[in-house]
Every structure is written in structure tokens, then in C-alpha cells.
Amino acid sequence: MFLINSYVKGLKNIPYFSIIFLYMRSKYIMIYIATVNIIQKGAFSMCEKPKFYITTAIAYTSRKPHIGNSYEIVLTDAIARYKRMQGFDVFFLTGTDEHGQKIEEYAKAAGVTPKEYVDGVAGEIKNICDLLNTTYDKFIRTTDGYHEKTVQKIFKKLYEQGDIYKSEYEGLYCTPCESFWTESQLVDGKCPDCGREVKPAKEEAYFLRLSKYQKQLEEFIESNESFIYPEARKKEMLNNFIKPGLQDLCVSRTSFKWGIPVTFDDKHVIYVWIDALSNYITALGYDPDESSELYNKYWPADIHIIGKDIVRFHTIYWPIMLMALGEPLPKQVYGHPWLLFGEDKMSKSRGNVIYADELTSVFGVDAVRYYLLSEMPHAHDGSITYEAMIDRFNADLANTLGNLVNRTIAMQNKYFDGVIQAPGNSEAVDEELKEAAKKAIADLDSNVAEYKMSDAVEAVMVFARRCNKYIDETMPWALAKDEAQKERLGTVLYNLLESIHILSALISPFMPETAVKINEQLCAAPAQYASLADFNSLKAGDKVGTAVPLFNRIDAEKLLSELLAKQEEKMKEAQKEDVPEGIAQISIEDFMKVELKAAEITACEPIPRAKKLLKLTLNDGSGVDRTVASGIAKWYSPDDLIGKKVVVVSNLKPAVLCGVESNGMILAADCSEDDVKVLFLDPSIPNGSKIR
Q1: For the segment 94-134, what is each residue's pLDDT rounded down to a tens digit?
Q2: How many helices (H) and strands (E) does the chain have?
Q3: CA of 35: how far to CAs of 1, 13, 29, 50, 208, in Å?
Q4: Using CA atoms, how far apart are residues 10 and 19, in angstroms rounded to an integer?
Q5: What are the C-alpha distances in Å from 566 to residues 89, 274, 386, 562?
Q6: pLDDT, tens digit, for every residue of 146-177?
Q7: What is the pLDDT of residues 615-624, one digit of tens each?
Q8: φ, ψ dihedrals at 197, nearest 5°
């Protein structure tokens, strides 16, 4: 009885066999009941698979996602597949975020209801997830009825306990980002997140008391080193947002209707972040009023996989919401970098957008998955170009992996009619190959554990290259000419076939279809991950199948010419569009309201505590010096600017930026993602000249 009581109190203190032993020997019915209850509650953790709950950010249903957006679902799927291969009980969630003012506006422009609009885009997003062969367990939509009802319950609970309160918001609103900003938060008078125009807005709203939980959140982040990953994101959140002081968060709106209504105040709809972020628990059946088996099983999430641009919402707003609800926080949030088109961010208005369905129709699904995972560093932005994709395809997939499998299967058929031979005595070169296999497995484990997927993929490809080197070292074709070397030839080919079987397992999280094709050619079941390092999964006497090329080499020059021609057409079409993405049309009367003047920079100095800003003093011909704060410090020093003539927007409403009242804006050009050029005028143009 003492052992049973000890187990009930301490759960894992007493081993499984001790409990069963007492149960078998005991005559007391009370012990029988206690044992059965423990089993029913799942206390015997060693009899269950370890749990792993992984999520993507839910995709916003404004437009069809481009390949940069699709990277996240492929990354998350690779991790989920890997964890399943390790024996974890994985729950993989993805889905769509479908409410907000932007959706309402898109639907109006399209002449459909918001629900009709999001149904179409959500369908496209789900189709892309399926096209890319992702193994999500649930696809949630924030328009799902169960989600909406639970969000309303969450909002009401937080209100009733005083964590949400009603007030009034007055600030500057960015519609594309659906975010309010203060004057001091703007960059050059525009939204600090997307760089677009903001509009003054004032409305009644409900607020979440972020400030109440600031200290608790700060202590949690500092005591849980791996909560925000990579480390740079953690420092950014603490130093730039939390420690300077959290402002309470606006969590309802009255200026649009496409959202989840507040049950006790029908003028308001619940604002995007409470609605969207709650999906991670509503998908598991969370309810503030009752327990859910799925929620109890999988929450807290092991990791949220999100883009680096929404780390703030997931590591500040979301944890505070959970703290207020009294629920555990997720174990980790990984803010992955972006995939750029060359060196530029993808934009439909530029015409430099690539879509997943376009790429897979040319390269195939596994090749696209391979490229995305191999080219994206874990902490820095990655890049996609057609040239790089073709190079990767030919070098890694066709030459290294494909050629290895094809010629090994072909030699096995040629020299032994496909029958696998029992390996004989091992030589030094064989042991080196086996050690390379063990290293590949270990490197894959360690890199995936840190979500360094490009390094994980490279570890596998290093082993594939080692296998090709082994062929060159052992020269099976030479061994085949000598009957006395028949046993040695059988050993060499066994080692190659076993290596390929191991490779099929190692690549399966990244290229699942290719792994299946390799095993079909081997006529073998998938290798068991736990025993890969044993190097003995294939049985002598079994027969391999027919060698079929996995990847056919691409005519690089021909395909590149075709793809670039199509890309050029897309860019031309984008330039023809009347309304570029995110920009509203204006009349000539509106444009004439902007007053542009020539001005000379007479003085220039950095602004303390503002790394991006320079304080410019301008002579615009009015006889009074004009002060302008401009975010060009990254590209220009004061000496570069003093004495230069520039164009100033002279009738812009004054704004205070980092303590400096800025009276205007100078014109500059965005030349690339990270290059800005100020527009300088001919020195002979008189100060104050109107520009039109």
C-alpha cells in the first residue's frame, strides 16, 4: 500500500513493474481500484509516446500566398515528420486568419461578402498546403463556429476578471497591418512595420492590461532562455518593447463589422490578436468553462513556428493572454527569417512574386521542398532565384543523390541479378562509410533539435557525397572483372544499398516522395529510425527492383531562359495595373495639395538615441530655417549632406520624432530592400523654387 500511495503522490517515483507486482499479489480491492485509476489517467508515461505539439502562424486570407509564405508550412512539416520518425505523438496545426478591416475592404472591392472572399482564399491556402505534401493534423479557420464561440468566452472571461476594460483610443492607424501607433512610434511619419501611410483614428475600444503582466512576462522570458528563438529575437523583445514599458493593447473595434462580435457589447468586434492567437488552443477544444481531452493532452505547445515580423505578438500579447487565463505558456517561439526574391522582399506590385504551384509544376514538389529547406538559414534571410534552384537541382538532387541511387541499383542488378549478398569481412574503407552514416544521423539530430534545417539537410547531403566517394574508392566495376573478388563486390554493394536505405530515412522529412521512391527501388520497407546506426536493415537474399532515375538533369540555359521570360511578363503586367498593391488612387486635385520645394541643407547632425534619424536644417527660401528629421542615417553621414539641394514636402503636418519636431519630409528613392538614395537637385536651382 505504501508503494501505491507513494506513486499516486509522486507519479514517476515508482516504476511500472512495482505497481503491477502489487496489483497481482494484493487481495485488497482498494488497491485494485487505485491501480486502475492510475492507468486510466495515463500516469504510466513510459507506456505512451512522448507528445509534441507544433503550429504554424495562421495565414491571413487577404491574397494567395507566395513561395516565401509557403516556406513556413514546409519547415513545420519537416519538423513534424522528423518528430514522428523519432516516435513522438505529434499534433501539427495550421490554418487561416480570416477577420479584419482589410478583408472587409478586399471583399467590397471584389463585390462579394467577406465570408465568400475568405472562403476562396482559405481554399487556395489549404490547396497549397496539400500540394506541398504537408501532414497537418488540423486546419483551423477563424471563421469556424467553435472558434468564434470560444473566443467570445475568452474575451468575456478576461473582461469579467478585470483584465480587459473599456476606454477610448486615439492614435494613428495602419489598415494593412491593422495596428494603432503613436506619433513617436512612426518612422518618417509612416507605419514602422510596413512603411505605409497611417490615418488618424479615434474610437471607443476595449483594452487588454498588458501593463499588469509586464514584470511577470519579463521574469518568465529571462528565466526561460529558450522561450524566444533565436537569441537575437529575445534581446529585441526585451530591450525594445518590454523593458521600456508595455502599453495596454486595443482589443476591439467599432469602425468595421467583419469580426467576432463582443457578446455583451454588440457595437464592438473582437480585434485581430485575441481572435487569431487563440487558435492555438481553440483548435484543441479549449474552453474556459470546461476541460478538453485534446487540450489536456497536447497543451502547452512545444513550439510555435512563425515569421520574424510577428514575434512581438507571439511573445508579448499571447503569453500575457495565457497568463490572464491562468493557462501554461508555450515552451518555445521560433521567429524564422524571410525568403527573399534575390535580394528583395516579394511583392505583387513589383511583379517579383513566385508561387508554389508554379515552381512545383517545373521542378516537382520534393525539389521545391528541398530548396526551401536547404537555402534558408535559421537566423538570417534566405534567397530564391531561378538560377540557384536549377543549380541545386542539378548538383544535389540529380548528380549526388539521384546518380548514387541509380547506379547502385543498376550495379546490383547487373552483377548479382538484383539479389542482395551477405556482407563479408569489413575493410577500413567500409568502416569509414559506416562512421559517416553515424555522423550524418547525429548531425541531423542535433541540427533539427535547434531548428537549423539547412544544416540538417546539408548533413544528409554530405553523407550522400561520401557514398559516391566510396564508389570511386572501391571501384565495383573493377571488382566485377575478378571472380576472386566476388565476395568483396557483394560486400561493397551491400554497404551501398544499406547506405541508400539509411539515406531514404534521413531525407524522408524533407523529401517524402523521394524517400518512398528509393524504398520502392530497394524493394524494402522504410528503415526504422531507432536502428539506423546498426547498418544492417537489409536482408541478404532479398532482391532489389529496377533502377529508375529519381531526378533528370535540367537543361539550365534553356529552362532559365523560359522562366526569366515569364518573370519579365509578370513584372510588365504588374506595372500595367491601375492600382498597385497597398496604394490607393488619388485625383490630380489631391496631388496638387502637396507642396514641394527646393531647399538647401545648411546643417545636419545625428539625433541622440535615434540610430535611424538625422536632424536636417533646411533653407527653403522662406527666410526661416526649417527642421526635418529624416530616417537616412544608415546611408548618409552629415558631411555627405551639408550644402546639397533636396526636395522637401513643405506643407506636411509637423510630427515629433524622438524629441525633434519635424516640419516636412525630404524625398528619397527605395532602390532595393536595403538601399536608399536621397534625390539631390541641380545646385543652380534657387532655394524655395516650387517643384511640380
Answers
A1: 999 999 999 999 999 999 999 999 999 999 999 999 999 99
A2: 26, 26
A3: 11, 15, 10, 22, 45
A4: 13
A5: 44, 41, 11, 6
A6: 999 999 999 999 999 999 999 987 778 887 77
A7: 999 999 888 8
A8: -65, 150
